[in-house]
Every structure is written in C-alpha cells, then in structure tokens.
C-alpha cells in the first residue's frame, strides 16, 4: 500500500522528463538556427540619389510552395504604388523581401544598380519606414514610442510629427500628455490611437521609402478617417508601397499592382483597370 504513492510520483516524473526533452529539442533548434539573412562581407552604402527600385525575376518559396513567381517590377522614386489582391497572393511577402526580412529564392531586388543584398542591413532598413496593421508599441511613454522611429535624432521634432499624424489633440487631452505610458503593446490606447502613434513614428523617422501594410484595415470608419489624414501627410514626397484591401486607400495611387497566386496580373491606374474589366474589376 505504501509503495503506490511513490510509484505514481515516479510515473509523473517520467512524463515531465519526456515533455521537457521535447521542449528542449525545440528551444535548441531555434538557438542553433542559422536562418538570419547574411550580411554582405563588404557592404555598400545605401545610394543617396537613387532613382529606381527594381524587382528582377523575383521568386520566393516556403518549402516547396511558391509564394512569388517571377516578379518583374520597376518603381520610380516618388511614386506611390498600391498592391492589391486576394489573401495569400504574395503582397506582404513582396515588401518583406524589400526589407530583407528574408531573401528571394531566385532573382534579385536592386536599388538603382545595387542589389540590396550588397547593402548593409542597418543602412537599408534605416531608409525604410514601416506601418503595419498590427502596431507594436513599447511599454513606455507616447513620446518615447514616437522617438523610437530614430533614436539617433534629438527629440525636437516629436510634437511636429504628432501634429502631422493627427495625434496632437488626443495626446494633449490625456492626463500626462506625451509622457503618458501606453501599456504593454499599447494596451491603454484604442486601435486608431495606436495606429496614429505608429504613423507619427514613421513621420519622425523621415525615411525616403515607406511601406504601409494593411495600415487601416482593422479600424472602424471613424478611426480610419482620422488615420487617413495622418497617412496623407506621411505619403508626401516619399516612394510608397501601399498594401490594402479597402479601395479608399488605393484611389490616389500613381499605379496599382494587381497580384494573383504570386504573380502580377495587371497594373495601371484605378480608372484604367476598371475599364479593362479584368481581375481588379
């Protein structure tokens, strides 16, 4: 009778050991992973007076599944490009490759004549501002979250960036103003407020290339209108890639790229594509 309890404890210990072995295997697999994109041995500086961004025969696969298939696209400096298509068509993957979150399986992306794989990662990403649907805010003040766009700058332009992002009024109305803590991942702010803080952060960074990845899709119509005012300021004098499902975001683009199953199937202005009566229509 007395043996039953210790035997049961031994069984429980055996199960916990087995579970721990599985967990440790997964942890060490991550720790030993070499999947980071490689830094160029002799990186070139980001070209200051660049004129074009070129995707040349870009293909990308997850395992055996092709997400992008032979993408060829040239974007001129100062051009606003809207990228539309059904979910899973490769829109976000296309811009993620531009930031080198991963590299193409084949083909290359060039800024002027320089492949981005030859540009220092820090230098490349310093010249790209990103605003996504899922905003990440640090557990810090509103001021610090805007300043996070570029900590190498002084904080003098933070309030100006907030005004351009249509943030200043709501920030001034909260008890501690710009020193208000936003909580874990911005928990103390509404969805629209978080999005406007992220836009102010991108304005403060002042990068020449801008990526908007579904920046307004999670918002209600009132919040979207407020955020759109900030986006209009952000888009001025920048080369922008705008991924969107809502047509209100893409009407004013210089060019609309329509993607389907990892390929570009149409491109043109809103009016041209409607007249064409194809995939966009």
Descriptive notes:
With 281 residues, the protein is of the alpha/beta class. It contains 9 helices and 10 strands. The strands form 2 sheets. Strands 6-7-8-3-9-10 form a 6-stranded mixed sheet, with helices on both faces. Strand 4 and strand 5 form a beta hairpin.
Which terms summarize this structure?
alpha/beta; single chain; globular; 10 strands; 281 residues
Query: Whole-number radius of gyration?
Result: 23 Å
What is the residue-mean pLDDT, rounded to a whole number? Answer: 84
**Ends distance:** 77 Å
Q: Low-confidence runs (pLDDT<50, min 5 residues)?
A: none
Q: Choose one word for the global shape.
A: globular
Strand adjacency order, main sheet: 6-7-8-3-9-10
What is the number of E strands?
Answer: 10
Query: What share of the residues does DSSP label as strand, in percent?
Result: 15-25%
Largest sheet composition: 6 strands, mixed
Total helical segments: 9
What is the SS-derived class? Answer: alpha/beta
